Amino acid sequence: MALRKFTLFPYCQLNAVSCLLNRQLPKGVRCVSTVLVPGEPSGPCVKTTIPGPKSLQMIADLDKIQFAGSIFYFTDIKNSLGNYIVDADGNSILDLLTQISSLPLGYNHPDLLKVLQDPDNHIAFINRPALAIFPTQGWPEKLTSSLLSVAPKGHTQVTTMACGACSNENAFKSTFMWYRNKQRGGAPITDEEHSSCLVNKGPGSTPFTIMSFKGSFHGQTLACLTTTHSRSVFKLDFPALDWPIASFPRYKYPLEDHIKENEAEDRRCLAEVEEQFEIYNKAGKFVAGVVVEPIQAEGGDVHASPEFFRELQRITKKNGAALILDEVQTGGGATGKYWCHEHFNLPDPVDIVTFSKKMLTGGFYSLPEFRPQQGLKIFNTWMGDPTKVLLLEKVLQVVKRDNLLKMVELSGKKLMDGLKDLSRRFPQHMQNVRGIGTFCAFDSGSQQKRDETFFRLQQHGIQPGPCGEQTIRLRPSLVFQPKHADIFLDILEKVLKEIQTP
Amino acid sequence: MALRKFTLFPYCQLNAVSCLLNRQLPKGVRCVSTVLVPGEPSGPCVKTTIPGPKSLQMIADLDKIQFAGSIFYFTDIKNSLGNYIVDADGNSILDLLTQISSLPLGYNHPDLLKVLQDPDNHIAFINRPALAIFPTQGWPEKLTSSLLSVAPKGHTQVTTMACGACSNENAFKSTFMWYRNKQRGGAPITDEEHSSCLVNKGPGSTPFTIMSFKGSFHGQTLACLTTTHSRSVFKLDFPALDWPIASFPRYKYPLEDHIKENEAEDRRCLAEVEEQFEIYNKAGKFVAGVVVEPIQAEGGDVHASPEFFRELQRITKKNGAALILDEVQTGGGATGKYWCHEHFNLPDPVDIVTFSKKMLTGGFYSLPEFRPQQGLKIFNTWMGDPTKVLLLEKVLQVVKRDNLLKMVELSGKKLMDGLKDLSRRFPQHMQNVRGIGTFCAFDSGSQQKRDETFFRLQQHGIQPGPCGEQTIRLRPSLVFQPKHADIFLDILEKVLKEIQTP
């Protein structure tokens, strides 16, 4: 196995430009150029091919116990820090995937470590409650100081769950209950409803549906999977429900050169939404809700315009259905706002917003009319995990103190400018640069080219994310600074040159 | 609000009888009469009605944020210890529900606290990995020393998940893949399969089904909910799939007086299983698997005979389907074995065994032929949580060191003997006593009577669990000792006398 030595780039200095912002900062908020995670390496350091021999041995060991075919490499989590993940072979890699976009503050953030070092917190970790029956005292205050402190506009209600899929499953269930209650119009529930649902029959079991979009990803449990359409690997061999599907816009880039085409694309997709409502409602398979990602992430970072989402909200409302925004991947700050849909200036609050990943806990915000009328309907044993909320509370404090959403904006601008420049210079290998904040992506022209770019970046100490058929997505944590963007862009340029003249 | 004073019972002494076992114990294993959680109260102590005024205020506070109608009371987790949960009003309650059967060692077990106090463990809690892409080094060893060390007979493969519902959803998916691959017989996957599944159509999306039993509970996400049939509250207003359902035996008690009737009941239910296989397979809605609880827990602690399960395994195998045992509630030691189905002497290993709750992590064991052929099919962002496995590893050490499965057997015998005695003395209020280990239950004759027994037990400082329509279930932790059984039985007797002569 060939060992590869990688020359470090001199990027450990503070980024001077961003310090200009210092004067505009509110009191108590740190300058964005501060070292956010003390002790972070000054750049990647690659000693072996990736995965290296130790990771390969560990993958073989794990494969004796479970299928291990999707593993990139094993990690040395103790030595990982900030934006740098260290693998089992000692390679220090600038991480732009961050555990599939789920690490808000990178690795071993000192403030999170303090949460664990505080003995008062230890009991929370060893006494996991059944939250919907025996919550711990202080729980309402904890929800208020964490999840509700960053709630989307108009939201006062939040329910925790263990993961993204459970959050979407329960968002769908909240939608079905709400729709059925509207249909009932106050009429009491009949004995026939109670008895029929026990054997999966109507009228107790409902023929309701959730509309979703081609290319979307909403998770891999059965209802979620029915609304997922990004890649066949997720769906093949499993049953699916007959629920409506509409097209999601596929824009031409650069956007500014294709305004008319892209507006027409919006109209085409929205017409499909209207049509699906009509077909399914007419057939009695009433569309109770529409679920949509603000940016289709797994599906290839597919963006749609604010106008598209505003019109989608109008059509959904007109049809008496709920709009469910799946912010599992887009939420948590990577777009420069806690919720990506806050970039869309929607006229009304979204009915339900689901989250997980960077929020550390799964769950959803929902308008008051989506509250269950009865216990045990939106329910499971644990209903999330208070220790994740405890950590989230600290994350949100750090985001505020260190002005990290501003950092996302700055680093995102640096990334986007650099990516656009590279795309102009290497048009055969980089197209359709797009992004909000650091939630950025570009296409490679083919799956084979994407895989080559991905592999070479990894060997040079950059961990990007693949998505869709030919896309590289960037999902750094919120402590990703312009200096890290510089390192990444320099290495990407180097890789593109290697590919161009092998 | 009336305050109630409760006289403490003198049950702090060690149970002398159980010490007789001392001589039979293997080296290094503690005598079961040892104080298992030092500092535990000697009995319940009730100062207010339950829920008390502080809990009621907290429930009102939480209800502003989310529906809080299923909450019993808020807890003072810091002051809870061993078998005793302390509520927000300072009531110390002997807990026979233990967070819906999910606390293996009760509250604040000193050995679990040590896991949190060890600084080497802190990093695991603040760096949650995406386990199917970037596992932490040492992960295969951790799975081996924890979950695989107590694997059911014949199992070498384990996959972690976040919760019980996700475990069952993925057990179903593993079953569908396995069934489809058998059907393919090695033929390659076609383009049509890939493209059709993306829009939820065949042949890529399959018409396969999972058979389940009346009265069962397998979780509340959509596929799980389709197989759940215990109570209408869980199912009403939600869509359900057309999947086969068979009857689960309903025995007459005492078992020894109704052998013939109960054998006939087994035959009736198994005939329904055969019939459902025939109907659904003939209709092309192939039954890929049968999911069943070893004891229907939420549905009212409904037991079936080992003979029933052995015959069910035979019929399932004959029909080319997989047998999935949902041990989410029965697993983890409460029956005196780690897996309840180990009491059934099944001729072959079960295809898939799902778990959660007392195992702290969700997940499933599955035979090697159920491994996916490809990555990302049994997949989500986190794939469980290594910190739960870290705690589980310690739990399993304590169970072994303190001989807790033996303790379950002893305490269970004490419980069952006492319950049977009370049932004979109060036949109008207690019937159908049943149980394995401490996984015990009895019926009250009606929902109203059950609710009264439940309420009065709570007011006397006992936290039982309700299930089914008229059942009280007991779900103590594994540190529940004969002395705790004595306390419970004395208070239950007191309550039954109160009810009999109000």
UniProtKB/TrEMBL annotation, chains A, B:
Co-factor(s): pyridoxal 5'-phosphate
Classification via Pfam families: Aminotran_3 (PF00202)
SUPFAM superfamilies recorded: PLP-dependent transferases (SSF53383)
GO cellular component terms, A-Z: mitochondrion
EC number(s) recorded for this UniProt protein: 2.6.1.19, 2.6.1.22
Top-level EC class: transferase
Domain of life (superkingdom): Eukaryota
Keywords: Aminotransferase, Pyridoxal phosphate, Transferase
Keyword Transferase: yes
GO molecular function: (S)-3-amino-2-methylpropionate transaminase activity; 4-aminobutyrate:2-oxoglutarate transaminase activity; pyridoxal phosphate binding
InterPro entries, sorted: 4NH2But_aminotransferase_euk (IPR004631), Aminotrans_3 (IPR005814), Aminotrans_3_PPA_site (IPR049704), Ig-like_dom (IPR007110), PyrdxlP-dep_Trfase (IPR015424), PyrdxlP-dep_Trfase_major (IPR015421), PyrdxlP-dep_Trfase_small (IPR015422)
GO biological process: gamma-aminobutyric acid catabolic process
Annotated ranges, domain Ig-like: 129-234
Family: Belongs to the class-III pyridoxal-phosphate-dependent aminotransferase family.
Descriptive protein name: (S)-3-amino-2-methylpropionate transaminase
